[in-house]
Design goal:
Blueprint lengths: L1 E6 L3 E3 L4 E7 L7 E8 L6 E7 L5 E3 L7 E6 L4 E6 L8 E9 L12 E2 L3 E6 L1
């Protein structure tokens, strides 16, 4: 359902930017919510950002508000995560995921599908 491809490099200095992409395939997604999660070594996987596919409604974790932007391209069935003003604490493996809108959102347990992770490393 989800293949996660990364645009740009995975290593960036603090204050820099990266853009991640996630291409969804295998069906229609109008009733789905696409979300990004991340997991740092030794930590639990945490919610980062989400977008309701049909309406474009977005929501973010407090830790990334104002710095990250999630968007989707309906024609390409692709979701993007634009990350700006990156901090060393943003270093993690980032995953895209999809859930039917009736599922619990903003939690890994609610996701129906997962993409492959992509490593983001922010150096200080």
């Amino acid at each position: 359902m989800c293949s996660c491809r990364r645009l740009g490099g995975g290593l960036v200095q603090a204050g820099g930017s990266l853009r991640l992409s996630c291409a969804a395939s295998g069906g229609t997604f109008s009733n789905y919510v696409m979300e990004w999660f991340r997991q740092a070594p030794g930590k639990e996987r945490e919610f980062v950002a989400g977008v309701r596919w049909s309406f474009g409604t977005t929501f973010y974790a407090d830790s990334v508000k104002g710095r990250f932007t999630i968007s989707r391209d309906n024609a390409k069935n692709t979701v993007y995560l634009q990350m700006r003003s990156l901090k060393p604490e943003d270093t993690a493996n980032y995953y895209c995921a999809a859930a039917h809108y009736t599922r619990p959102l903003q939690t890994p347990d609610g996701m129906d599908y997962w993409g492959k992770g992509t490593q983001v490393t922010v150096s200080s």
